[in-house]
Amino acid sequence: MAKKLTRDEKYVLYEGSVQNPEADIAFINREFKKIRGKEPLVLREDFCGTGSMACAWVAQSKKHKAHGIDLDMEPISYGVQNHLFKLDEEEQTRMEFILGNVMASYDFKTDVIVAFNFSYFLFKQRADLVKYFTQVKKHLKKDGAFFIDLFGGTETRKPLEESVKHKSHTYYWDCDKYNPLTADVLYYIHFKTHKDQVKHEKVFKYDWRMWDARELLDILKDAGFSETLIYWEGVDKDGTGNGVFKQSLKAENCESWVTYICALP
Ligand SMILES: C[S@@+](CC[C@H](N)C(=O)[O-])C[C@H]1O[C@@H](n2cnc3c(N)ncnc32)[C@H](O)[C@@H]1O
Predict the structure, then answer these.
(1) 54, 145, 152, 160: least CB-packed within 10 angstroms?
(2) Quick one: pLDDT band at residue 3, thresholds 50, 70, 90?
């Protein structure tokens, strides 16, 4: 039997496959400045996992602060050792990991709240999503902004395993089941490590509901947000995404896409 991945191996593989905190931060900085006419300084990263984005946030300047919230001590402990402790002592004082629930009430408000990597898809009932978005709005400054990412496309609602080859490993994004009546979906992440050619199955599991863009815009309004902006990625000459997201309601019904929504209180 294959040796189980250690905590560190698991998060190194995860972060090397699905995260790009620098690109997310650049997008937020640019859009917030456009909307609010100033730089966002205080971030709350919901479902922060290892908090890689929150830690990268505080490294931007001495004025930046961040709070990362997650229920699970395992990714937090990895993040403390591998992201927080890599910051200098002064930077560390501006970053707070909170072992807690994003649904709870906290005694601080921020310029930006993010819920990335689709984590809010774990709320399967509309009422729970309204409750979560309402809590988010309460914790935003009045000139703040809430950013979520979302994904979809014809290929994301059927059993299908996609793979991406990296230098040291292959990453698999595996849609195991999709129920067209409930929109329940079950995804797994597997990794193959190239050195030993071992495929580690079901390293992460996501029991989610696929939320549609239009539904999300409606739910954000129901949660009290006054305005919502939705973005779409531009394409390169070869038709693949170019990483540049612009506000738009025009979109091509492609096989697989990822984008952002921004909601203003
Ligand atoms: C898909 S991971 C996302 C991690 C990270 N945001 C990223 O971009 O990769 C979802 C995380 O949400 C956390 N989580 C689930 N329910 C939560 C809740 N109600 N409050 C806080 N964290 C929660 C899990 O512990 C897990 O670390």
Answers:
(1) 160
(2) confident
C-beta separation of 45 from 68 below 8 A: yes
Is ligand 1 within 6 A of the CB of residue 259? no
How far apart are alpha carbons 225 and 235 in whole angstroms?
Answer: 30
Average model confidence (pLDDT) across the chain: 96
Sequence-ordered alpha helix ranges (H) in the chain: 7-18, 21-36, 52-58, 73-82, 89-92, 126-138, 213-222
Q: How far is the CA of 50 from the centre of ligand 1 (A)?
A: 9
Q: What is the pLDDT of residues 132-142, one digit of tens each?
A: 999 999 999 99
Q: Kindly give the number of the ligand 1 atom that is closest to the alpha carbon of 18.
A: 9
Show the domains of the chain with their CATH numbers. Answer: 7-152+210-264 (3.40.50.150), 154-209 (2.20.25)
Query: For ligand 1, is residue 135 a contact (CB within 6 Å)?
Result: no
Q: Ligand 1: distance of its center to the CA of 210 in Å? A: 16
Summarize the confidence of residues 56-78 as an average pLDDT.
Answer: 98
